[in-house]
């Protein structure tokens, strides 16, 4: 991924790809989500789809085509759901509200990535500016958002912010040496099936926590610049068999030991019900990568 080009100076002010910068004293990557959406829409030439609304347009610009989850003969966990394999994808209940933890990057505890241009993206393996790439076994993360207030129908147009740790259990924007790194964080907008998908790496296991992915659901992409607008903050748990297989990889040094010292029932987030509504379906293997899918039931927007 190449670095973002510099804006062009014009008599009217700085411009990027034909659009005036919203914040003339700041860089392109700091223009905010609204500017980012306009850039994506123009770049993909879909302005003629005005009747689809912001959510559909952003999805068309940002989400890759659906691909089947990796199987490769690997075992699949059987909790959660997978829309690509025809499994049940109806929410069994409302996703539990959980802590965003100490490293949210949403402005509620220090840095705020949600105001930066480039945060609306499907591939979160690299930093927004392309300067760093997270190393690890590939993971495709799929969340299927369901509106429980309306019988569990797919909830289109909501924005989902997802983030997680590196293979070594560190967090971009917070851990020592990663303060200026922004990988493993991104926003997607749900399609007509209520689906968002991210390309990432399998997160490691650090001491005291079961392997997990954080996420926040917002009413729409315009709402992401204020963490108080989130309608739900929760976490996805990864099944033990997939974790054990991944952590044999030397890039996940320490994760096998940390996993042996924790369980879903003893985890301080998932322990109440052993992640009954938060344990993802995971399919794939270490060679071809994994797909993790979870149904997220929410009470409307």
From TrEMBL:
GO terms for molecular function: ferric iron binding; oxidoreductase activity, acting on single donors with incorporation of molecular oxygen, incorporation of two atoms of oxygen. The lineage of its organism: Bacteria, Bacillati, Actinomycetota, Actinomycetes, Micrococcales. Keywords: Dioxygenase, Oxidoreductase. SUPFAM superfamilies: Aromatic compound dioxygenase. Residues 124-208 form the Intradiol ring-cleavage dioxygenases domain. It comes from the Bacteria. It comes from Microbacterium hydrocarbonoxydans. InterPro entries: Intradiol_dOase_C, Intradiol_dOase_core, TAT_signal. This is Dioxygenase. Residues 68-86 have a biased composition (Low complexity). Residues 68-114 are annotated as: Disordered. It holds the Pfam family Dioxygenase_C.
């Amino acid at each position: 991924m190449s670095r973002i080009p510099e804006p062009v100076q014009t008599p009217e002010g700085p411009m990027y790809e034909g659009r005036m910068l919203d914040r003339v004293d700041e860089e392109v990557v700091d223009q905010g989500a609204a500017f980012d959406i306009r850039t994506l829409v123009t770049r993909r030439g879909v302005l003629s789809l005005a009747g689809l609304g912001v959510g559909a347009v952003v999805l068309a610009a940002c989400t890759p085509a659906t691909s089947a989850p990796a199987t490769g003969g690997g075992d699949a966990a059987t909790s959660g759901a997978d829309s690509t394999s025809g499994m049940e994808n109806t929410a069994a209940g409302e996703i539990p509200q959980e802590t965003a933890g100490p490293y949210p990057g949403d402005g509620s505890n220090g840095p705020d990535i949600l105001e930066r241009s480039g945060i609306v993206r499907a591939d979160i393996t690299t930093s927004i500016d392309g300067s760093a790439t997270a190393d690890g076994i590939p993971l495709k993360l799929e969340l299927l958002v369901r509106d429980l207030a309306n019988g569990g129908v797919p909830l289109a147009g909501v924005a989902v912010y997802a983030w997680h740790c590196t293979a070594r259990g560190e967090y971009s924007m917070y851990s020592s040496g990663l303060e200026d790194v922004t990988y493993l964080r991104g926003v997607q907008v749900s399609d007509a099936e209520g689906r968002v998908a991210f390309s990432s790496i399998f997160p490691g296991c650090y001491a005291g926590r079961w392997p997990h992915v954080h996420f926040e659901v917002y009413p729409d992409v315009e709402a992401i610049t204020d963490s108080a607008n989130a309608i739900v903050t929760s976490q996805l748990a990864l099944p033990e068999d997939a974790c054990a297989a991944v952590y044999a990889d030397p890039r996940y040094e320490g994760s096998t030991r940390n996993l042996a010292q924790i369980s879903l029932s003893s985890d301080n987030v998932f322990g109440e019900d052993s992640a009954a509504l938060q344990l993802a379906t995971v399919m794939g293997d270490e060679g071809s990568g994994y797909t993790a899918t979870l149904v997220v039931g929410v009470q409307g927007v």
